[in-house]
Amino acid sequence: MANTSNSKKVVLIPGEDAAPEAFHPTVALIGQLDVPIEWDVPPVGEAGIAQMDDPFPDIARQAIDNADCTLFGSTNGTSGRAMRHLRWGKKTYANVRPARWFPGCNSPLKNPQGIDLVIVRENMEDTYVGVEGDLADLAPINFISRLHRKPVQDMGKGKYALKVITEACTQQITAFACELALKRSAVSGKRPHVTSGTKHNISPVADGYFLEVARETAKKYPDVLFDSLLADDLVHKLVVKPQAFDVIVLPNLYGDLFSDAAGGVIGGLGLAPSGCYGKDYAYFESAHGSAPDIAGQNIINPTATILSAAMMLEYLDFTEASARLVKAVEKVYAEGRHLTPDQGGKSSTTEFCDAVAKML
User: Which of 27, 98, 119, 246 shows the smallest number of beta carbons within 10 Å?
Assistant: First the structure.
């Protein structure tokens, strides 16, 4: 049961490799904002193994279940069981990945001004149901390939993966996307716009079903402009004219892939935050990986982690503190003196965070 006092309880899981180098100074920045948050740091990953010979002991699970939300650093797998509990155990079905350019971000595009979109990724199913195996195992079912016109087990030695699209999950992610578009419209003044992306020409059953259910669900939101694109056309337009998009709703796998592309057009995954939302829980983490290649060098860009923390503050109703943190980051980029190497600068992670602290 979540904390019910005036203060909020937040679990901290720093992650592995270079992730803690961005994570710990982010927590310190939140400490400057004077918000009533009680931190809980249970032993997870390497800490869990060292203390309890378990990367995700029961005490960590209980801490997550008793908290209002979790701030999570990127994992190389050691903290993976905690992440799986946060996603599937807590049913955080909506992975929200904003991509917004602001002055100073090192976009590869000539004119990145006006990029402000959000990818809403279904977080529960698709190929992430984890049902895979040998093609030979399908012999009793005798699936006939629509394209090869023969049983799939007769195609030769190989593997398969199951893609699952359900009505309930598609309905709830589309409704979430439409509600988010309405909230963004209230701020921007623009008409709310939701775009779906599927490969329904190649997968008329699974992807076609996602599109069908999404379209029907969107009809319940008459103020929202809903349209759809083939997934390959969508990723093309995402690179060529990202300013044309508002909210993009996608099945799990496409959402994972295309959100990285969206991060790329604004200047890289070091700028890409994310939050995973359920009906009564959420957790927040940067969209990038744990960056083992730069671990210990103090050069990881902490922007994605800081902006993920800002999303967390907004979720906890600390709206003013969230806005202050975002504005401080924007000022550091606009000034351009303390940027990390991925953004064309020469500053360390520590120097960047110190600059944000001064802006606060």
Answer: 27
